[in-house]
Design brief:
Elements: E1 6-11, H1 18-33, E2 37-42, H2 66-75, E3 79-83, H3 84-89, E4 101-104, H4 106-114, E5 118-121
Helix pairs in contact: 1-2
């Protein structure tokens, strides 16, 4: 049996750039429809997207609201990881993250990248 393909999207954009914040979720949702495993890693200012209450305020023209894109992403089995040093630097507690957001340090993210067929950075 063939191994499932996997793609990692790294997003460094938050609510300040709704289009770039939405694109990884748009693509990850499309990948999962194609039966490709998808993981989105939030880094830098992008970690604010995983903070409770943020998603409701992000909507890029031409796309569904980010909250809906993230809900669809989770429903299809997508994994959302959040950079531990990035949330620590921004004084975001793990308890303040949305449900299903996984804190992840650099070594673990590197393993995810190495196991993927492709990695894209936004």
């Amino acid at each position: 049996m063939a191994e499932q393909e996997k793609i990692v999207y790294i997003s460094t954009n938050g609510a300040e750039n709704p289009e770039k914040a939405s694109l990884p979720f748009v693509l990850a949702n499309a990948a999962m429809v194609m039966e490709v495993e998808a993981l989105i890693a939030l880094q830098g200012p992008g970690v604010f997207l995983a903070k409770k209450g943020c998603l409701e305020h992000v909507h890029a023209a031409g796309f569904a609201p980010l909250k809906e894109l993230v809900e669809s992403f989770f429903e299809q089995g997508g994994r959302l990881v959040v950079c531990v040093p990035c949330i620590q630097e921004r004084k975001i507690d793990v308890e303040d993250l949305i449900e299903r957001a996984e804190p992840m340090a650099g070594g673990s993210l590197t393993e995810e990248i190495l196991s993927a067929n492709a990695t894209l950075v936004y």
